[in-house]
Amino acid sequence: MAKRIDVSGLTAYYGAHKAIEDISMTVEPRSVTAFIGPSGCGKSTFLRTLNRMHEVTPGGRVEGKVLLDDEDLYGSDVDPVGVRRTVGMVFQRPNPFPTMSIFDNVAAGLRLNGSYKKNQLTDIVEKSLRSANLWNEVKDRLNKPGSGLSGGQQQRLCIARAIAVEPEVLLMDEPCSALDPISTLAIEDLISELKERFTIVIVTHNMQQAARVSDRTAFFNLAAVGQPGRLVEIDETERIFANPSVQATEDYISGRFG
Ligand SMILES: Nc1ncnc2c1ncn2[C@@H]1O[C@H](COP(=O)(O)OP(=O)(O)O)[C@@H](O)[C@H]1O
Ligand SMILES: [Mg+2]
């Protein structure tokens, strides 16, 4: 069976600086994969290579391969804009378009693509907001600015915006780190629901969160400061937390790390 994502030998640079080196892993469809590891080990960089956002940074380039459903995302005939539609992203700080209404925020990606029938837009916006567990809180204020929502609501709005264009994969870079504990649990519940339809990769610095939401966990580390980040191991989440194969993983998850 085709893996949803199949990465081999991926190395990423910022100019001359090699941020991550020789990463290989696969991701199954309709699963949640968590990336954990110390700050600066390249989790965000690696995540952004999975939808070709890394190359938007000046000097950003990659070597190696990323296959999505067997298609090479870095193939010479591949449109990076299309890749970012198929592989959506949710960021650490909720970033709704501040001057746009709640409705227009969710519709923004669809309008950009033109990939909908005019009379479907209202339905797709409602469906996306429902899927993001936000509909009941905003249905009476769809024309109010998205920036008027609480942080947790804004993050769910960003998730609604990301899923409105029906991506295959959703990348989330510490999506709860700016949120209070109750909003965090709401997002975690949402992730568990969304994995029925999407393949999710989440970076988190919160070990309990990785244990709660993910099926598989990847531990990244730096051999030394200034060295590129590497994938130490990836395995079933239960195994990573109960009985990891590598000592460095155990040291990190048990808080013995540096
Ligand atoms: N925009 C950038 N320009 C140059 N170097 C960067 C940039 N972003 C990250 N880096 C470097 O890449 C490495 C990995 O960073 P990052 O992917 O942000 O790690 P993490 O998300 O695990 O904290 C670090 O050495 C960091 O300094
Ligand atoms: Mg990061």
From TrEMBL:
GO cellular component: membrane
Example GO biological process: phosphate ion transmembrane transport
Residues annotated as domain ABC transporter: 5-247
Keywords noted in UniProt: ATP-binding, Nucleotide-binding, Translocase, Transport
GO molecular function: ATP binding; ATP hydrolysis activity; phosphate transmembrane transporter activity
The keyword ATP-binding appears for this protein: yes
PANTHER family in UniProt: ABC TRANSPORTER I FAMILY MEMBER 17
NCBIfam families tied to this protein: 3a0107s01c2
Entry protein name: Phosphate import ATP-binding protein PstB
